Amino acid sequence: MIISVADSMKRAVLRELDFSFEVPEIESLKKEGITFTQPVQVEGTVTTDSGKMELDVNLKTEVQQVCSRCLDEFREELNVSLDEVWAKKVSDDDMDTLLLSEGDTVDLTDLLTKSIISSLPIQPICKEDCQGLCQNCGANLNRETCDCDKEQVDERFAALKDLFKEV
User: How many angstroms separate the CA atoms of 152 and 133, rounded?
Assistant: First the structure.
């Protein structure tokens, strides 16, 4: 979705536009392996005033992920809030304001895609107390227990282990 504020930016009048839409899929995220189990719900407000545009967006969806500990798939609700300010002219002191592109348009799809990617965890975990997989046999410790020897001894220090048994 592209927002054009060319007419609004020419006038020194405060204008506010509320919008709401649903995105079934974002193709670039699909290529990254991000799967949505619900459509992306987007609600927001665009406010223009004297050469400035403020964008306030809330995004809500559900994402299917793979746990980095146990490799089980799980669903997680994703809520992203985004507040951006654009202007035709930006001073060197104003680091938070972005420069409006030619034609006074903003590509909302690109902005939402970047926000979704940055809000996802690098190592998703299905639950706080996830046990993960056994390092020896690969059993999912959330569902089963294994009989593997939990005591791992580095072979380089095995001789020292026997030394401490005498004391």
Answer: 16
And the tokens for 67?
């746990």
Q: b or e along 129-163 (b: 16 or more beta carbons within 10 Å of the residue's beta carbon)? A: ebeebbeeeebbebeeeeeeeeeeeeeeeeeeeee
**How far is it, in rounded angstroms, from Cα 135 to Cα 148?**
9
Residue 90's nearest CA partner among 41, 45, 52 is: 52
DSSP 94-123: --SEEEPPTTSEEEHHHHHHHHHHHHS-SS
Q: Which residue has the tokens 């970047």?
A: 114
- Residue 6: pLDDT above 60? no
pLDDT tens-digit profile of 14-70? Answer: 677 788 888 777 777 777 778 888 888 999 888 877 777 788 999 999 999 999 999
**pTM, entire model:** 0.68
- State how far the alpha carbon of 84 is from the alpha carbons of 18, 87, 99, 128, in Å: 15, 10, 11, 33
**Could you give the CA distance from residue 83 to residue 55 in angstroms, rounded to a whole number?**
6
CA distance 63 to 118: 14
